[in-house]
């Protein structure tokens, strides 16, 4: 079955490294996109606001449906990485990480599912992380938040498959975006050199580019992925979590 024309997508974190690539890749497939971010996103429609605001998240699916005249695809992509061992993290780190990485997708999915169900189905794609499946060192807040996104994905997939809503997640290892680059910069390291070193640690020879992740999102949102529901797709170039 071909994808229906003029599908409509809501993408969070649409002004970020992976988000921008997702918007572009969806556009290339003829999908109309509403982008959400702290700053204006380069999408058909742009909603600016803070995903830490519960009321903002709750309203997004209805707002996007009004703007685009429908809603078929949700991409929960916005996220932050909080570094440091548990003893180095604050209450504020906990609240901020959980609000953006977990509570926002929870609220957006909860508000979107009745809309998608009413329309006869749809696709939700969450951006988790391979660290949400295989924990790595020194990032307990990030790891637990991404594990929650992976669990939310599997749980919603079971509950809403009968509504023809497919929920899947992409779990990248390192991707060449500001998230990775600022990590090097804050540690006083040259981002270019850091990326080069990371590239050599990946069996496929390079870390992911945002487009590698965006293509997977487009696939999972499409009818080509019609039998995938509750899948956690690891995109890691064969690099395991170390
Ligand atoms: N870059 C990587 O190596 C990597 C690896 C695995 C998973 N991921 C995940 O991919 C997703 C995208 O990451 P990225 O690398 O593109 O990061 P990024 O920092 O380039 O983009 C994240 C975007 O989310 C937005 N955002 C953050 N907090 C927000 C808030 N409170 N309200 C509204 N928007 C907010 C930012 O403004 C930014 O545009 C994240 O969920 C991240 O955890 C990234």
What does this entry look like structurally?
With 242 residues, this protein is α/β, with parallel strands linked by helices. It folds into two domains: 8-173 and 211-230, 3-Layer(aba) Sandwich (Rossmann fold); 177-207, no CATH class. 44% of the residues lie in helices and 15% in strands. It contains seven helices and seven strands; from the N terminus they run βαββαβαβαβαααβ. It has a seven-stranded parallel beta sheet with strand order 3-2-1-4-5-6-7, with helices on both faces. Strand 4, helix 3 and strand 5 (122-127) form a beta-alpha-beta unit. Helix 3 packs parallel to helix 4 (140-160) and helix 5 packs across helix 6 (191-200). The longest helix has 28 residues, at 91-118. It is globular and about 50 Å long. The model has no long low-confidence stretch (mean pLDDT 97).
């Amino acid at each position: 079955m071909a994808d229906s024309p003029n599908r409509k997508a809501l993408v969070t974190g649409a002004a970020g490294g992976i988000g921008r690539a997702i918007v572009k890749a969806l556009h290339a497939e003829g999908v109309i996109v509403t982008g959400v971010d702290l700053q204006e996103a380069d999408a058909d429609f742009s909603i600016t606001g803070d995903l830490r605001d519960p009321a903002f998240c709750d309203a997004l699916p209805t707002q996007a449906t009004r703007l685009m005249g429908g809603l078929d695809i949700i991409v929960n992509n916005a996220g932050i990485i909080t570094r440091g061992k548990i003893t180095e993290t604050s209450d504020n780190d906990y609240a901020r990480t959980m609000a953006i990485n977990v509570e926002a997708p929870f609220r957006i999915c909860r508000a979107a599912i009745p809309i998608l169900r009413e329309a006869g189905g749809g696709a939700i794609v969450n951006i988790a992380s391979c660290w949400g499946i295989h924990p790595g060192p020194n990032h307990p807040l990030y790891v637990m938040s991404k594990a929650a996104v992976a669990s939310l994905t599997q749980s919603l997939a079971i509950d809403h498959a009968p509504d023809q809503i497919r929920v899947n997640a992409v779990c990248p290892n390192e991707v060449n975006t500001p998230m990775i680059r600022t990590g090097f910069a804050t540690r006083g390291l040259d981002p270019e050199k850091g990326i080069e070193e990371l590239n050599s640690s990946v069996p496929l020879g390079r870390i992911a580019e945002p487009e590698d992740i965006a293509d997977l999102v487009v696939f999972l949102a499409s009818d080509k992925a019609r039998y995938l529901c509750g899948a956690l797709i690891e995109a890691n170039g064969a690099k395991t979590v170390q």
